[in-house]
Task: inverse folding
DNA sequence: CGGTCGCTTGACTAAGGTCAAACGAGGTGG
DNA sequence: CCACCTCGTTTGACCTTAGTCAAGCGACCG
C-alpha cells in the first residue's frame, strides 16, 4: 500500500486497458480519454444512487466500488464489487434511464466517467464500442445467472465459498496466485454477496479461519487454500 | 386456440415487431427478415444446448421457450420463459461463444434465427441494432438482478408469487388484463423458476387455488386476484 | 473515557427441504 | 376394452439448515 501519485499518463493507460475500447485504433482511444472525467474519491462515498436518472457511465481505474441494490421492502443485497478495469452504470444509459442500484467507493478510488451524450455518440460512431459493451454486459449477465442458480440450489456455505472465489478471480492474475483479495470486505459484505445473514457468514468465515483456509490482515482477506475452498464450493466437502 | 396457418406475412410482421429492429428504416427491416430462418417446431424439443458453440441468435415469434441452466452438480434452474417477441441466445455470439443454458420449446412454436456471421455484420453496419441489443440485455440483467435479490431475501411464497406475476406481465397486455398465463406451466417449472422444490411449490399453489387466487384449466394457469397476489409478493400478507 | 461499529457466539425456532407413499389422467399395447 | 405404465401431482411426517433473538467483546475514534 505505497503512496500513490495521480499522474495523467496513468489514467490514460488505465482507460486504454478497458474492455470498452478493445480493438479500437489509438486515435479513438485518445478521443475516449479526452472525453473522460476522472474523479479521485475517498472511501465510503456515494458515486451514484439507485433510482436516479442515469447521467453518466463509470469505470473504476484504481480502488473498488460496491454495487448494492435495495428492495422496496428495505432488504439490501450486494450485487457485485467492481475491481479496477471494470465499468458500472453503463446499461442504464441505454434502457429506461434509471440506475438500478447504488454505487459507493469501498476504498479510496479513481473513477473515470463519461456523459450520457458523449457515450451514446461514441457507441453510434464506433460499432465496435457497442459490441464491446454487449460483451461486457453479457459477461455480467452470465455471472448473475450463475449466482441465481447457485442461490436457488446450493447451501449457504457453498455460496459463501463461491463469493470468495469470485472476488479472488476479480482481483486479477497476480492476486489470484497469492489468493489475496485486495478489497476491504466486511462480514456484512460477504453475507449480502452470498445471500445469507451477517451471522451465518461470520460463523462460516471464522470456522474457515480456524481451519487455516483463510487469513485476515487488517480489512483484507486472503485465501490460503483455494483448492479446498473450491471443493467446498462444489459441495464435495463438508 | 384456433387453428393457425403459417403465413409468410405473419412472420414478417412478427420480426418487424422485435425490439431488435426498433427505430430502423423499413429497408433494413426487410433485410433482417430476408436473413432470418424460420423453424416451425412442436413442443418439447431442444432448440439449443448449454455449452455448445453459439452459432445462431433466436427469436420466438409464436409459442414459448424454456431457458434452463444446469449446474456442474446437476442441479437445474429455470432461468426464464421466452414469450413471443423476445430473443434468446444472442449474447453468446458476442462473448466467449458458448451458450450458457439450454433452450427447449414449451409448446408448438415458430422460431426465427440468424447465423452468427449475418448477425454480427448487422450489428456492425447498423449501430442502432447494437444499441437495441444492449437495451434488451440490460433489461434482462436488471430482471435477473432483481430476482437475485429476491432469492436472497424473500420467502419461498413471495418468490413464487413474483414468478407468477412476472409470467403474467410477460404474456402481454391482453392476458395481463385477464390474468391468464398462456404458457404451459408444470409445478416443476414454477418451482425451478422460484428457486424452491417441487413440493413446496405444489403446496403453495394448491393452497392458492383453494383460496380462489388461481385457477387452472388444462396446463394453463390463470391469476384471478392479481392485487392480492401482488400483496403476497411484497410480504404484506400471510 | 464513553460511544459507536463491526464481529463473535450461544440458544432457540421455524421455514422449508427430504423422504415416502399414493393418486389421477392420459396414453399404449395386449 | 381393459390393464398397465408413466408422468405430473398431492399430501403427510420428519428433520436439517440457517435465520432470529439476545448478549457480550474488542477496536477505533472523537
Result:
Amino acid at each position: 500500500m505505497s503512496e500513490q501519485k495521480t499522474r495523467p499518463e496513468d489514467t490514460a493507460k488505465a482507460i486504454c486497458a478497458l474492455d470498452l475500447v478493445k480493438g479500437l485504433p489509438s486515435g479513438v482511444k485518445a478521443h475516449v480519454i479526452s472525453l473522460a472525467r476522472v474523479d479521485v474519491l475517498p472511501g465510503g462515498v456515494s458515486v451514484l444512487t439507485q433510482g436516479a436518472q442515469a447521467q453518466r457511465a463509470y469505470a473504476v481505474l484504481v480502488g473498488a466500488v460496491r454495487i448494492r441494490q435495495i428492495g422496496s421492502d428495505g432488504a439490501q443485497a450486494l450485487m457485485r464489487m467492481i475491481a479496477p478495469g471494470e465499468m458500472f452504470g453503463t446499461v442504464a444509459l441505454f434502457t429506461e434511464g434509471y440506475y438500478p442500484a447504488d454505487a459507493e467507493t469501498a476504498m479510496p478510488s479513481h473513477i473515470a466517467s463519461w456523459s450520457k451524450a458523449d457515450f451514446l455518440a461514441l457507441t453510434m460512431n464506433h460499432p465496435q464500442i457497442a459490441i464491446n459493451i454487449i460483451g461486457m454486459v453479457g459477461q455480467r449477465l452470465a455471472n448473475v445467472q450463475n449466482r441465481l442458480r447457485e442461490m436457488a440450489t446450493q447451501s449457504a456455505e457453498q455460496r459463501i465459498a463461491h463469493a470468495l472465489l469470485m472476488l479472488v478471480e476479480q482481483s486479477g492474475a497476480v492476486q489470484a496466485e497469492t489468493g489475496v483479495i485486495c478489497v476491504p470486505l466486511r462480514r456484512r459484505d460477504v453475507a449480502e454477496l452470498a445471500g445469507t445473514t451477517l451471522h451465518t457468514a461470520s460463523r462460516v468465515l471464522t470456522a474457515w479461519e480456524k481451519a487455516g483456509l483463510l487469513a485476515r490482515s487488517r480489512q483484507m482477506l486472503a485465501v490460503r487454500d483455494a483448492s479446498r475452498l473450491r471443493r467446498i464450493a462444489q459441495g464435495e466437502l463438508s
Chain A has a mean pLDDT of 90. Residues 186-188, 198-199, 202-203, 206 of chain A lie near DNA strand C (CB under 10 Å from a C1'). The two ends of chain A are 36 Å apart (CA to CA).
